[in-house]
Amino acid sequence: MPNLILADLGAEINANVRSALREDIGSGDITAQLIPEERLAHATIITRENATICGTAWVDEVFRQLDPRVAVHWQVADGQQVSANQALFHLEGPARALLSGERSALNFLQSLSAVATRARYYADLVKDTHVKLLDTRKTLPGLRLAQKYAVTCGGCHNHRIGLYDAFLIKENHIAACGGIALAINAAHKIAPGKPVEVEVESLDELKQALDAGADIVMLDELSLDDMRIAVALTAGRAKLEASGGINESTLHAIAATGVDYVSIGAMTKDVKAVDLSMRLSL
């Protein structure tokens, strides 16, 4: 499973920020116009809670697009764990730009840091195992790549990015194709070289998927005992991914069965923004 890296996200970050500023500022920040255009200011952004940071490039891009005269001085980096009341970065430049960009910049930072923080929490729960934790497609529309990058900052890994880069053959696909083997064979013909993953709900279906040459088999809500049997049956013929209803209380036991991957939708879907605050001074 490939991981997104910041170097590949330049165009995406530009587009994310352009959309956010258009949404927030529209035809112009009328409140900022109360401040003289030439007035300069400083600001410090702190976190009010422990977190794993992600989103520095989005913050940089907010102020670059608003006013290149704004200087952003980072005290932390993506992937770094921080403590409550710690300073994250300082700003200096035109006061109007600092205030106009505050909300968009903090929205990106607090949301992406929330994903990274949750991912780090899960990664720490299974750090004594060899399992890789994967995200899913349960992301905010328009921010999928950003959220998936945040997952990697928290020490977890990316599943497929969308519907185009890998096959994931589920129950309805299997029914429509006429069976597991038929679906896998068709996938190999349609896009040779693309990873083929199949969801199974029993050990019998696992055997069918292995015999048909699946690259990855998703074990959907199998019991712990069946997962252990699945690992033994598979014996390295394919990668195994556990999925379905996994939470912090069940994660470690599932990871300990020997599966290769565990996918967790909550990593990007059920997160609470990190509490940040900006303090301005002239």
Q: What's the CATH architecture of the largest domain? A: Alpha-Beta Barrel
The helix/strand series, from N terminus to C terminus, equals: HEEHEEEHEHEHHEHEHEHEHE
Strand content: 15-25%
* Domain module count: 2
Radius of gyration: 22 Å
Task: Sum up the structure in keywords.
single chain, 282 residues, alpha/beta, Aldehyde Oxidoreductase, domain 3, TIM Barrel, 2 domains, six-stranded parallel beta sheet, elongated
Can you walk through the features of this model?
It is a single chain. The protein has about 280 residues and is of the alpha/beta class. The chain has 2 domains: about 5-125 and about 270-280, Quinolinate phosphoribosyl transferase, N-terminal domain (Aldehyde Oxidoreductase, domain 3, Alpha-Beta Complex); about 125-270, Aldolase class I (TIM Barrel, Alpha-Beta Barrel). Helices cover about 40% and strands about 20% of the residues. The strands form 3 sheets. The protein has a 6-stranded parallel sheet with strand order 6-11-10-9-8-7. A 4-stranded antiparallel sheet has the order 3-5-1-12, covered by helices on one side. Helix 7 links the parallel strand 8 (about 195-200) and strand 9 (about 215-220). The longest helix is centred in the middle third of the chain and has 31 residues, at about 95-125. The N and C termini lie far apart (about 50 Å).
